[in-house]
Design goal:
Number of helices: 15
Number of strands: 3
CATH superfamily of the largest domain: Type II secretion system (T2SS), domain F
Largest sheet: 3 strands, antiparallel
Distance between the termini: 92 Å
Helix content: over 70%
Number of domains: 3
Strand content: 5-15%
Oligomer: single chain
Shape: flat
């Protein structure tokens, strides 16, 4: 049975040194008794030892994929510098800004001290360390080249995290602006339009049709805002639940996203880059192609590509070349297929996959930058139509009254 991880705490202490002078400080330890033992070894007579309490406490942040990427690079650097594994984990865990990540690293260190291998310890946290990560660490431990494999893992994590951030930026920016535009429109309909409505009551003339439509919409928002909010919440909750529970729903969503103009191109090229980067990393570590494709499928990040790679794996296992299977699934650009073909024929598949990944990662960078430039005038147009339309609707009756006078 594995030993339960015991969490260290920070203790504040006061005491007197050999000269009788008053000294104080803080120390991390498992208990106050251990703090007193350490102080006496240093020639300090402890007077008081108490656990440090913070006013607001450290928020236990969620462990993100970026934390795993940083951990990978830190461990690779430590191991290449010749720091023993347990000591490296101790240094990285205590120095991590995310308390939750530091706690998990402490658990991994405790497992290793209890006799588990590094790979076995990581495998006990499958939410954060996938099969690819664990398999590469296991291969490094078996071959005696753990530091080299950790460096490959760190590079892979950094590259995939960078491209993930690019894709997230491409999707988040327009969505955030549109949400803000609708919030502003709702505020105008709820607070501003009613002021004009009271003004129009004394006109004694028919209002323009556009103004009547906006006033009716404003009245609906004022009286039925709870219904609108409820519908929006219901749509959001339904989407989240369906996305979690139904693979067919996620498949349909991913397929639609891949076909969108501009955004679909970014998603396709990022999937190709991730495929090539993962395959290069696995193949360079000596993992057989069929096993590598299994890990590549799970790292695809898109169900359409995941199912295509699993189909390719089945065909490769029967003896077909990778380039042939890539052409058959009809998802990969011809350039990627041709470069993989050259890699297979020359026996340098890992390096060719790395070049494919580099090329398409750069393509994604350029597409995201271009998307930002394209979206700015489109967003201004949307804001102009929504906000400007409300302003025009409110001033039309005033213009009409002025022409009559």
């Amino acid at each position: 049975m594995a030993k339960a991880a015991v969490k260290e705490a920070t203790f504040q202490w006061q005491g007197t040194n050999r000269d009788g002078a008053r000294v104080k400080g803080q120390m991390e330890a498992l208990s106050d008794a251990l703090v007193k033992v350490q102080l006496r070894k240093q020639g300090i007579n402890p007077i008081s030892v108490r656990k440090k309490t913070e006013l607001f406490g450290k928020r236990k942040k969620k462990i993100e994929s970026g934390d795993i990427a940083i951990f990978s690079r830190q461990m690779a650097t430590m191991m290449q510098a010749g720091v023993p594994l347990v000591q490296a984990l101790d240094i990285v865990g205590k120095g991590h800004e995310n308390p939750a990540m530091g706690e998990m690293i402490g658990e991994i260190r405790t497992e290793i001290e209890g006799g588990s291998t590094f790979a076995e310890s990581l495998a006990k946290h499958p939410k954060y360390f996938d099969d690819l990560f664990v398999n590469l660490v296991d291969a490094g431990e078996r071959s005696g080249a753990l530091e080299a494999l950790l460096d490959k893992i760190a590079t892979y994590k950094e590259k995939t995290e960078a491209i993930k951030k690019k894709v997230k930026k491409a999707l988040t920016y327009p969505a955030a602006v549109i949400v803000v535009a609708f919030i502003v429109t709702g505020i105008l309909l709820y607070f501003v339009v009613p002021q004009f409505e009271d003004l129009f009551v004394g006109f004694g003339a028919d209002l323009p049709a556009f103004t009547k439509m906006i006033i009716s919409l404003s009245q609906f928002v004022q009286t039925k805002w709870w219904m609108v909010l409820g519908i929006l919440i219901a749509i959001g909750v339904t989407h989240v639940q369906c996305h979690r529970r139904f693979r067919g729903y996620r498949r349909a969503q991913d397929r639609i996203m891949l076909r969108l103009p501009v955004v679909g191109d970014i998603l396709n090229k990022s999937a190709v880059a991730r495929f090539a980067r993962t395959l290069s990393t696995m193949f360079a570590a000596g993992v057989p192609l069929v096993d590598a494709l299994d890990s590549v499928a799970r790292a695809a990040g898109n169900i359409v590509y995941e199912e295509a790679v699993l189909q390719m794996k089945d065909q490769v296992s029967t003896g077909q070349q990778l380039q042939v299977t890539m052409a058959q699934v009809a998802l990969f650009p011809s350039m990627a297929v041709q470069m993989i073909a050259i890699g297979e024929e020359s026996g340098a598949l890992d390096s060719m996959c790395a070049k494919v990944a580099d090329f398409y990662e750069e393509e994604v960078d350029n597409l995201v930058d271009n998307l930002s430039s394209l979206l700015e005038p489109l967003i201004m147009a949307v804001l102009g139509v929504l906000v400007g339309g409300l302003v025009v609707a409110m001033y039309l009756p005033i213009f009409k009254l002025g022409s009559v006078v």
